[in-house]
Amino acid sequence: MKIEQLSNYDDNSIITADLVIVGGGPTGLTIAAQCAKAGRKVLIVESGLELENSEHSALNEVESVGQPQSEAQCRKRIEFHSPQARFWSQEVQPFGVRCRALGGSTHAWAGKSAPFSGIDFKARSWVPHSGWPVDREQIDPYIVRAMEVLNLSPQEPPGRFDQEGLHSFYWQFARSRVDRLDVMRFGSEFMAQRLDNIDVLLDATVTHVGLSPDGSRFSDLEVASMDGKRARIEAGMCVLAASGIENARLLLVSNDVHFNGIGNHHDVVGRYLMDHPGARIGAIPTDQMAVLTKLFGFFGIHHHGRAHMFMHGLALTPEIQEREELLNAAVYFATERAPDDPWDALKRLLRRHSPDVGRDLRSVAAGSGLIVKGLGMRVLSDSRTPKALKDIVVNSAIRMSPNLVANEFQNQGVPHKLVGLRIEAISEQIPNSESRISLSSRKDRFGVPLAKVAWRINDAERQTLLRIAELSRKALTSAGLPAPVLEDWARERRPEDIVIIDMAHTLGTTRMSADAKTGVVDENCRVHGVSNLYVAGGSVFPTSGHANPTLMILAFAIRLADHLNSNLAKV
Fold first, then answer.
1. Which helix (H) or strand (E) element contains residue 294?
2. pLDDT in tens, 28-46
3. Which of 21, 46, 75, 197 could form a disulfide with 36 if both were Cys (CB 3.0 to 4.6 A apart)?
4. Residue 299 near residue 310, CB atoms below 8 Å
């Protein structure tokens, strides 16, 4: 494997490959690995470097003309996204969270993974534009292969709850094979494999996708580096795997052959933008949280000698979705930090971001015991601690106390002062053609129009969030469990007041469809009308489900890789 930066090439170089993949995130890297193992010469083109930096992150800028837009939404986005995404800012990315570096979004994710349900693939009369051109059963073998890539277990704990239209749903966490105390970061995982037949070109931002004069074939990519170097990349096949925002943007800006952009004869590129509307629905006080933490906390499962962590939540059953015409949705339970948590106070003081220095100093002093406890985890984090010892400790801990381990992973070994258990809901979103990516009049440093984002939150999502809040309270009470204190909007049935944010799961902008009039790619992810150009990632999803999408994205990536390998073998 060779890794180079475009700035090291001569200006206006011509680079060739059998297959070029745009985007070095989990989707692109997975396709590359699958194709390279089959003996294909693959070139990965990544806009960023091996690690994130502020200069490349500025290229993620978008213009937002839709949701989120209220002050409450913006505050919640900062609170939710900032801790995980180091170079993210509300000003640059008022919608979405993208990371420009090898490994893509896994620089900022929590590793949370789950498969879509069978109902997500079906055409539903109450969900406009629903239905996939493939069935869930056709994707099952690829889900198993994607689980192996993500270091997940195909087995999960048994269902523990089924009442009032809600049943058990499990999320699993992708654990790193490189750093035993972290979730999977695809950049470092990919580097550790050192696969043959793969070249990686960093600091290479794609500015144009070229077609043959008649528009029937992909011909080349134009790329640019931060220092102004330009090059052309020629390949027999191309896959755009650059995110739900960037995939659509690249197709739209490449409009020299087709006036409306590539694959956009029917004005579908960029439309049907979806995410997972998320909102807090209630909370459980500290003195009542123990029983719910035991039932809806974390569970450890051993598979092939590895320990795997599952989070237990509740999802709407297919029956109640159909009966009440609801979208697919789920709730999960998460610990709530105290306002005077000493570690948060210490962070604010060290970063000189404290709004009240005296108050934060008092919090640190009062919580000194928690701070001392947290320092003990540094032993396991130390690179000098043998990996075998880390494996023994972590796997044993997951088996004996999965909730403790989950807190250590999520908090990076730092114990926090808690005040209760919050209940969060996440919902599917209906595909809405007015929710879309288009092109802004503003341009980036390379002269390419920014993506203009008009994300729409629909009444269907608000009603679903309200209903799952009511059902959750009823189900827990009926089961003799502590009743949550619902948020005001839920108690008073005011869905219009829900503070909803995007969960950084950008989906649907190059949707899959058997008919070119209603989609951008076919069931094999090939752009309609272009024989050798493909799109991969969540942008091809016709509907969103409620599950975190990475597992399903990689299942379709592996399926696409098999298709590409078959086609390349015929060349």
1. helix 289-296
2. 999 999 999 888 899 999 9
3. 197
4. yes
- Cβ(220)–Cβ(234) below 8 Å: yes
Across the range 473-490, mean pLDDT stands at 95
Tokens 């889900």, residue located: 143
Region label for 83, one of left (φ > 0), alpha (ψ between -120 and 50) or beta (otherwise): alpha
Other CB atoms closer than 10 Å to residue 419's CB: what's the count? 17
Distance CA 460, CA 430 (A): 7
Tokens 């209760």 -> residue: 420
Report the distance separating Cα 246 and Cα 240, nearest Å: 9
Whether residue 44 contacts residue 32, with contact meaning beta carbons closer than 8 Å, is answered with: yes
From CA 232, how far away is CA 220, in angstroms rounded? 7
Q: In 3D, which of 536, 571, 565 has the Cα closest to residue 197?
A: 565
Q: In this structure, which long-range contacts are made by residues 371-378, counting pairs with CB atoms below 8 Å and at least 24 apart in sequence?
A: 371/342, 371/343, 371/346, 373/415, 374/343, 374/413, 374/414, 374/415, 377/181, 377/408, 377/412, 377/413, 377/414, 378/413
E-assigned strand segments in 294-435: 298-303, 306-316, 329-337, 418-427
Q: What tokens were used for 178?
A: 């490189």
Tens-digit pLDDT profile for residues 144-201: 999 999 999 999 899 999 999 999 999 999 989 998 778 999 999 999 988 889 999 9
H/E stretch holding 28 reads: helix 26-37
Rg (CA), the chain: 23
DSSP 281: E
Residue 550's pLDDT band (cuts 50, 70, 90)? very high
Burial of 363: CB neighbours in 10 Å, binned 0-12, 13-18, 19+? buried
431 and 451 Cβ atoms separated by less than 8 Å: no
Q: How far apart are CA 367 and CA 405, in angstroms?
A: 21
Q: What is the pLDDT of residues 390-448, one digit of tens each?
A: 555 455 555 555 554 445 444 444 343 445 689 999 999 999 999 999 999 999 999 99
* Nearest one of 186, 177, 180 to 51, comparing CA atoms: 186
φ, ψ at 426 (rounded to 5°): -135, 135
Cβ atoms 289, 485 nearer than 8 A:
no
Please, what is the angle between helix 357-366 and helix 368-375, to 10°?
70
Other beta carbons within 10 angstroms of residue 250's beta carbon come to: 26
- Is the pLDDT at 13 greater than 90? The verdict is yes
Share of the chain above pLDDT 90, in %: 74
pTM check: above 0.70 = yes
Distance from C-alpha of 27 to C-alpha of 24, rounded to nearest angstrom: 8
- The enclosing H or E element of 560 equals helix 550-570
